[in-house]
């Protein structure tokens, strides 16, 4: 039987799921303190990276209804579309479906010039 390694993962505020090798509690503590980690999972055991990614993704995936209810905390309803797009581009994040619905638009691409 193959030796299983310890892993952990997190969901970034932009919705992406990341899987990492677990070395110590410090890994999880730093993730919990980070403003970029929306949810942390682990540690858990898996035989390899592929298995770890599958386990982690299943634990951290969002369902569509939950995704529509979450807005990034750095986007305020009082912002104009341009302000929200500029902040999202600077943070390299997507806007959520609920923000798109609230504003009545969908921002597809942003070009910022100084």
Overview in brief:
The chain has helices at residues 25-33, 49-60, 64-69, 81-90, 97-103, and strands spanning 5-12, 17-21, 37-46. By secondary structure, the protein is α+β, with helices and mostly antiparallel strands. Mean pLDDT is 75; it is low at 64-70.
- What is the number of beta strands? 3
Indicate the mean pLDDT.
Answer: 75
Which runs of at least 5 residues are low in confidence (pLDDT < 50)? 64-70
Order of helices and strands: EEHEHHHH
Helix and strand composition category? alpha+beta
Strand content: 15-25%
Shape: elongated
Cα end-to-end separation: 58 Å
- Count of helices? 5
Biggest beta sheet attributes? 3 strands, antiparallel
Largest sheet: spatial strand order:
2-1-3
List keywords for this structure.
114 residues, 3-stranded antiparallel sheet, 2 domains, 3 strands, single chain, alpha+beta, 5 helices
Can you lay out the helices and strands and say which pair or pack?
Elements: E1 5-12, E2 17-21, H1 25-33, E3 37-46, H2 49-60, H3 64-69, H4 81-90, H5 97-103
Antiparallel strand pairs: 1-2, 1-3
Describe this structure in words.
The chain folds into two domains: 5-61; 66-103, no CATH class. It is elongated and about 55 Å long. The protein has helices spanning 25-33, 49-60, 64-69, 81-90, 97-103, and strands at residues 5-12, 17-21, 37-46. The N and C termini lie far apart (58 Å). It has a three-stranded antiparallel β-sheet, sandwiched between helices. With 114 residues, the chain is α+β, with helices and mostly antiparallel strands. The protein contains five helices and three strands; from the N terminus they run ββαβαααα.
